[in-house]
Amino acid sequence: SKEGYAHYMLKEIHESPRAVDDTISGLISDIEDVKNAIKILEESKRIIVIAAGTSYHAGLYFSLLLQREGFNVIPVIASEYYNIKTNQEDSILAISQSGETYDVMIALKEFKANGSKIISLTNVIDSAIARQSDVKLYTRAGPEIGVAATKTFTSQIAALQFLYSLIKGDDYTYLNKAKDVIRRSLDFEGEAKLIGEELSAKSNAYYLGRGLSLPFAMEGALKIKEITYLHAEAYAAGESKHGPIALVEKDFPVVFINLGELVGELQNNVQEMKARKAKTYAISVNEKLNTDKEILLTVEDERLSPFAVTPIIQLIAYYSAVKRGNDPDKPRNLAKTVTVG
Ligand code: F6R
C-alpha cells in the first residue's frame, strides 16, 4: 500500500532513511562476506564495475572514490561489456537492484568465463546475478515498486561507501548518521517541488557536476528523462564549454549539483551560464554557488554529502513528472526489470 502517499515513488523516497540504515546493519551482520569482497578487490590488478542505468551511476561514484585512492578501476556500462577483455587477475563488481538485468547477466557470464572473480551487490537475496557471483553482497532497501529507482540507489551509495571506508581502513560509523542527513533533506521537499514544477514547463535542461558530484548530476538528469519526459542531459561542468553551452540561451535551465568539493570551479561555471542568461539552480552542500535558485544543505561530515543531495534530485524529478500529469510510478516505455537485451 502507498500508506497515504500519492505514489509509490514518493513513499519510497521517504523510506530511504530506513533503507540506508538497514543496508548498513545488514552489511555489518554479513561482515565476513564484506571482508571476502574487499580481499578480492584489493588483490586484483583491475576492478571492473558493471551496471546499468541508475545502478551504473552508483558504480561510477564508487569508481571515482577508489580511483582517487590509486586503484585501477574501470566503470563499464553493462551493455558495452564487449569493449573490455578481462582475465583471472581482474575482479568484477556487478551492481543491480533487481539482480536480473539482462545486460549485466551477459557481461557477467563473459567475465566469469575469463576467470575473473565476481562480487555482486543486489537488492534481492539470491537473485540471478547473486547466484553467478563468488561473493554476494546486498542492499536492504526492501521491495521497490515505483519503476524509477530511488531508495535502492541511496542504499547502493551507502553500501559502496561502507566498502570504500573499510578499504581505506577508516571508521565507518559516520554512516550511522546518513539517515539523519536524508531526513533533513526531506524537510526541503517544498523547495524541491518548486524547482521540479519550474522544470516541468521546460523542454531541455542541463545537469552539471564536477568530481564526485558528476554521478549525481547524471542520476538527476536520468530521473527527469525517465518520468518527466523532459530532455535533460548531464555533463561534467568543465565540459559544458566544449560544446553543450551552444544551446544555452535566456532561461535555459541549468541545475548544478555541488557536493561541497571543487566549489570555486563550479562557481566559475555558474558565471558562464549566467552570462548567457541561463536560469541557474543548485543543490549545494555546505557552500553556496549563488545560482538564481539554490537549495543549501548542510552536513557535518562531507562524506555524507551524497545522502543530502540524492533525495532532492529524486523529489525534483517526482514533482516535475506530477506537474506534467505523468504517472511517476509507471513511466511509458519502461519496465522495472529489464530482462531482454
Ligand atoms: C532508473 C532505473 C533504471 C535501472 C536499470 C538497472 O530509475 O530504474 O535505469 O537502474 O534498468 O536496473 P537494475 O539496478 O535492476 O540492474
From TrEMBL:
<keyword id="KW-0032">Aminotransferase</keyword>
<dbReference type="GO" id="GO:0006487">
    <property type="term" value="P:protein N-linked glycosylation"/>
</dbReference>
<keyword id="KW-0808">Transferase</keyword>
<comment type="function">
    <text>Catalyzes the first step in hexosamine metabolism, converting fructose-6P into glucosamine-6P using glutamine as a nitrogen source.</text>
</comment>
<keyword id="KW-0677">Repeat</keyword>
<dbReference type="GO" id="GO:0004360">
    <property type="term" value="F:glutamine-fructose-6-phosphate transaminase (isomerizing) activity"/>
</dbReference>
<protein>
    <recommendedName>
        <fullName>Glutamine--fructose-6-phosphate aminotransferase [isomerizing]</fullName>
        <ecNumber>2.6.1.16</ecNumber>
    </recommendedName>
</protein>
<keyword id="KW-0315">Glutamine amidotransferase</keyword>
<dbReference type="GO" id="GO:0006047">
    <property type="term" value="P:UDP-N-acetylglucosamine metabolic process"/>
</dbReference>
<dbReference type="GO" id="GO:0006002">
    <property type="term" value="P:fructose 6-phosphate metabolic process"/>
</dbReference>
<dbReference type="GO" id="GO:0097367">
    <property type="term" value="F:carbohydrate derivative binding"/>
</dbReference>
<feature type="domain" description="SIS">
    <location>
        <begin position="195"/>
        <end position="331"/>
    </location>
</feature>
<feature type="domain" description="SIS">
    <location>
        <begin position="37"/>
        <end position="173"/>
    </location>
</feature>
